[in-house]
Specification:
The protein has 982 residues and is an all-alpha fold. It contains 50 helices and 4 strands. Helix 8 (136-150) packs parallel to helix 10 (197-215) and helix 39 (732-744) runs antiparallel to helix 40 (751-764). The radius of gyration is 33 Å and the shape is globular.
Length: 982
């Protein structure tokens, strides 16, 4: 424990980071580690960077290891830490410890999410007792901690459990909260100004945050009773703070960070927006909204707050206006043509133009410019900039019954902007930029980030505007117009891609290829984003464009994209622009076999890029897309030309070996998936290069990283399918079972992967060799059932037993399974069947129902043990559960869509959760078409009919013992279909 400080220091150095982290990981599960770590964090004699590293490490333990199954943290240590964290927060109240305190506050929130209130009943009492009448440094720390706990309620779905927790907090915290709110507001709104006004204002801002937390799900009685003290016009705290701007807190005009009063007003507008959405009746008790709207005019009308520091206040106040318009409750405020005209002139137009700092961002921080520009997907919650917030007000007017007036008024501004541009294009390019942005806003009725505009304003002809004003910029030669106008033209295409026909989109693709070769970062990146989104357009479930559509363009597109990526230089620059890599992936996924003539060059370039970024992995999205690209290229080229597989193996084995040797943990999950994909492409046998890898795959260290487990399971399944006999001969099957029994099945997180591996074992290991292990496997499964049963586990367990009985493997059948269970304990099988399997059958997801049906049918008609008392008593209820499956026959056969789907169309950034701490980064392209393990049964109903015809006479005797109302009609229907059962 004495070297924790030196290990934390070493973890900050790239050269020693990995080793230090491994040592810290091993220490963390030792008794007393958490207490030592917290003591170090609080000890001012240590270097601040070491203490901060300790705070971050503690937060990561709370985030990743608090409920760890493998190497769990001692419960006594966890309890001790819970009792020490709030006092630690107070001890770190000094402003110089702010960064460290933030880590402790986050640790409290993370642990509270798991342990509060059940295991941490005194947390709220600890926080309340820590509040101070006079020391606002302490109060800020306590309130930050409280807010970090309550903040999680905002995103949660309503449930009894959630409201139990909220009510528990409110019963203790509400009165101290109201008292402190009043006290703090009184200090700030009184004269003379308090000497510690800044820290008191920080407390007031967090109190307003907590007000939002308390009201985000429902209106608490305490706040409802105090409504007027917050919302009343003139006298309410919120209204009084709207005009509050003390000289001591005013910031420099060139400052980019919002002042404390601006932050406070922004939070109050957030609450106003929340109340309009959730509690409009409460707001209507007084003219509160009218007061807020008046405040917006006074604060931001006619561009009164032009500074960058006020951007979030302006954006939020405009969002408040948009929400009020959309709500429909305040028609009297917004319905007159004069009001709409003044809204457009006073609020929308001043905020719609590009501002100087945005132009600086366009040149100096292009990725940030793109990120903010793309953030506006039509959902008000995504509004990020002033121009987006202004556009959203316009869209609110269009979609709330003011379409005609808004379109007409804005139309005149658009015409004016275009006239100004045409009078002097070089000088007045900003006028055209604003006109295009206004047109985009007024034309959009509904849109999503993923699909662009989904419905348009009927009064605006988008295609006509495109052909008259935008198309010319899309095809303008390089340097002939301002760079922003190229971006506007491409963005217009991106936004309204669904309004253009398939032929129109195909005709502009070559122009986008040209823009991929542009010099400006934003231009070529927007071209890549637009190509990706166009190729992802679906009509129903089918993609609009196929490989024939981009046959002639694919190679040029990929070449242009890869050139831009390769030219970026150092690893972190190469990996920063994931939009380019995503577009390359989309081209490969769309072009499919079209790329076969150039696949070697493409593969080599991808491998070279991977070699560069592997030196410093920095962007999880880029990583996802490059591995997805390699996987998709492999999938489509090899499926069309199987002789290309060795080329892929030669190109990939070297880099993959390096990744495994250097333990680049961000990439290892992908490597295992692609290795499995390549091995699966070998229809028979296992080449020696793969076989030499197997001992390494079975070492415990390989299985320590959670993200690697799915890929490893997939890879072992590929080995088992092709090499099970050899694995039995070398004893490696014992190691495979050890992984399943010791590491996967006992884990609540990984038990599903454990069953997947066991299914592959029973499917491929000959039943005679399997016999010696099978009883021990069942013992492991039953032990886990006894020690930590979960609903998910009962389902997995039941499915595994049915799967083992369903598959058509020589020597493996229902009695193979049942006899192994009966050897453990007599009559245990009938208990498992009645208590677990039969209740689980109706809950089976659709994809597993055929396996369940076939397993049950074989058990009922082929097992002799099932026909022998006392097991025979459980036969009738099991048969009834099969009949119930047949009452929903559509779930026993795949739809055509399911059969045709390859899963590859699912690759999309909005659907991916790429991230280095993600439990698993799945490669959609590496997933083959799901294989039906009971394909030998075409029609389960026919299979049952045939089985009953051939069954032991005792089966026919048991048929009459079931529920007559269910069994008899079903059997009669089978007889009527020609099955001679009776």
């Amino acid at each position: 424990m004495s070297n924790i400080a030196s290990l934390l220091q070493a973890s900050l150095q790239p050269a020693s980071r990995k080793q230090a982290e491994q040592q810290l990981h091993a220490l963390a599960s030792q008794q007393g580690f958490l207490a030592h770590l917290l003591t170090l964090i609080l000890n001012g004699s240590y270097d601040r960077s070491t203490r901060l590293a300790g705070g971050i490490y503690l937060k990561n333990i709370a985030k990743l290891r608090w409920e760890e199954d493998d190497a769990p943290l001692p419960e006594g240590d966890k309890a001790a830490l819970r009792s020490q964290l709030v006092p630690a927060m107070i001890a770190l109240s000094d402003p110089t410890d702010k960064a460290i305190r933030a880590q402790i506050a986050e640790s409290v929130a993370l642990i509270a999410e798991l342990d509060f209130p059940a295991k941490w009943t005194d947390l709220i009492d600890q926080l309340i007792l820590s509040l101070s009448q006079t020391d606002y440094s302490i109060n800020v720390g306590v309130l930050q901690t409280a807010h970090s706990i309550f903040n999680q309620w905002r995103a949660q779905v309503r449930s009894d459990e959630l409201f139990t927790e909220i009510n528990f907090v409110l019963s203790r915290f509400m009165q101290p909260f109201l008292d402190l709110s009043n006290q703090t507001a009184t200090i700030l709104l009184s004269s003379p100004t308090s000497p510690n006004i800044a820290i008191v204002t920080q407390a007031q801002i967090i109190l307003v945050d907590i007000f939002y937390d308390f009201t985000c799900q429902d209106l608490p009685p305490g706040i409802e009773d105090a409504h007027d003290s917050f919302f009343a016009p003139q006298t309410g705290l919120f209204q009084r703070f709207m005009s509050w701007d003390p000289a001591e807190l005013q910031s420099d005009p060139d400052e980019t960070q919002p002042s404390l009063p601006a932050q406070l007003k922004t939070k109050i507008f957030e609450i106003g927006e929340l109340y309009i959405k959730l509690f409009p009746d409460q707001l209507s008790r007084s003219p509160a909204v009218e007061g807020f709207v008046q405040s917006v005019w006074e604060l931001i009308g006619s561009n009164k707050l032009p500074g960058v520091a006020d951007d979030s206040l302006v954006s939020q106040s405009l969002r408040f206006i948009s929400t009020a318009i959309r709500s429909g409750y305040y028609k009297s405020l917004f319905s007159s043509r004069d009001t709409i005209a003044s809204l457009v002139q006073g609020v929308i137009i001043p905020n719609i133009g590009l501002r100087d700092h945005e132009m600086e961002q366009f040149e100096d921080e292009p990725l940030e410019f793109i990120r903010l520009d793309l953030a506006f997907g039509g959902s008000a919650s995504e509004v990020a900039t002033r121009r987006q917030a202004a556009a959203d007000v316009l869209q609110a007017l269009v979609s709330s019954g003011y379409q005609t007036e808004a379109t007409e008024i804005v139309g005149s501004w658009i015409t004016l902007g275009l006239q100004q541009y045409n009078s002097n294009p070089a000088q007045n390019w900003k006028a055209k930029d604003s006109a295009i942005y206004l047109l985009t806003a007024v034309a959009t009725e509904a849109s999503t980030t993923q699909h662009g505009v989904t419905s348009t304003n009927a009064l605006v002809d988008v295609v006509k505007f495109f052909s008259e004003h935008v198309y010319q910029d899309l095809r303008a030669s390089a340097g002939s117009i301002h760079e922003i106008l190229y971006v506007d033209a491409i963005r217009f295409l991106l936004t309204f891609r669904n309004q253009l026909t398939r032929d129109q989109l195909l005709s502009v693709l070559p122009l986008l290829v040209r823009h991929l070769n542009a010099d400006h970062y934003v231009t070529y990146t927007y071209a890549a984003i637009t190509i990706d989104r166009i190729l992802f357009i679906k009509k129903g479930t089918q993609l609009l464009f196929s490989q024939t559509d981009i046959h002639d363009l694919a190679a040029d597109l990929l070449d242009a994209l890869l050139k831009k990526i390769e030219a970026a230089g150092p690893p972190e620059k190469v990996a920063e622009n994931d939009h380019l890599m995503k577009c390359a992936m989309r081209i490969i996924v769309t072009a499919r076999q079209t790329l076969t003539p150039v696949y070697q060059q493409v593969l080599q370039r991808l491998v070279n890029i991977l070699g560069v970024i592997a030196k410093n992995p920095s962007n999880p999205n880029f990583d996802q897309y490059i591995f997805e690209s390699i996987s998709a290229l492999l999938r489509f080229v090899v499926s069309g030309t199987s002789s290309t597989l060795p080329t892929f193996e030669q190109a990939l084995f070297g880099p993959f070996t390096l990744i495994l040797q250097q333990d680049i943990d961000q990439y290892i999950p992908y490597v295992f998936q692609i290795l499995a994909q390549m091995l699966e492409a070998h229809t028979t046998g296992v080449p020696s290069e793969y076989r030499s890898l197997l001992p390494f795959l079975l070492t415990p260290t390989c299985w320590q990283q959670k993200g690697s487990i799915p890929g490893l399971v997939k890879l072992l399944k590929a080995f088992l399918a092709r090499d099970a006999a050899e694995m039995v001969k070398t004893g490696q099957i014992t190691a495979v079972l050890a992984v399943a029994q010791q590491r996967l099945i006992p884990s609540k997180i990984n038990d599903g992967w454990g069953f997947e591996l066991l299914q592959a074992v029973v499917q491929h290991v000959p039943s005679a060799q399997l016999k010696q292990y099978f009883k021990a496997v069942i013992m492991t499964l039953l032990t886990r059932m006894q020690t930590s049963k979960t609903d998910k586990y009962v389902y997995l367990f039941s499915h595994f037993l049915l799967f083992t009985m369903a598959i058509n493997v020589d020597g493996l059948g229902p009695d193979y399974v049942i006899s192994a269970i009966e050897e453990i304990q007599t009559q245990l099988w009938s208990q498992i069947l009645v208590n677990f399997i039969v209740p689980q059958v109706p809950k089976m997801p659709h994809k597993d129902r055929k396996v369940a049906a076939v397993g049950l049918i074989r058990m009922l008609t082929q097992s002799t043990i099932m026909l022998t008392p006392p097991n025979a008593q459980s036969w009738p209820p099991a048969f009834v559960s099969v009949i119930k499956l047949f009452s929903e026959p559509q779930y026993l056969s795949k739809s055509k869509d399911e059969e045709q789907s390859t899963g590859i169309t699912e690759i999309d950034s909005e659907e991916q959760t790429a991230g280095y701490q993600a439990a698993y980064s799945r490669l959609a392209a590496a997933d083959g078409v799901p294989v039906d393990p009971v394909a030998y049964v075409r029609d389960p109903r026919d299979f049952l009919g045939q089985a009953l015809v051939k069954a032991d006479p005792r089966v026919k005797g048991l048929l009459v013992a079931g529920d007559e109302k269910v069994v008899q009609p079903f059997v009669q229907a089978l007889v009527a279909s020609g099955y001679a059962i009776q």
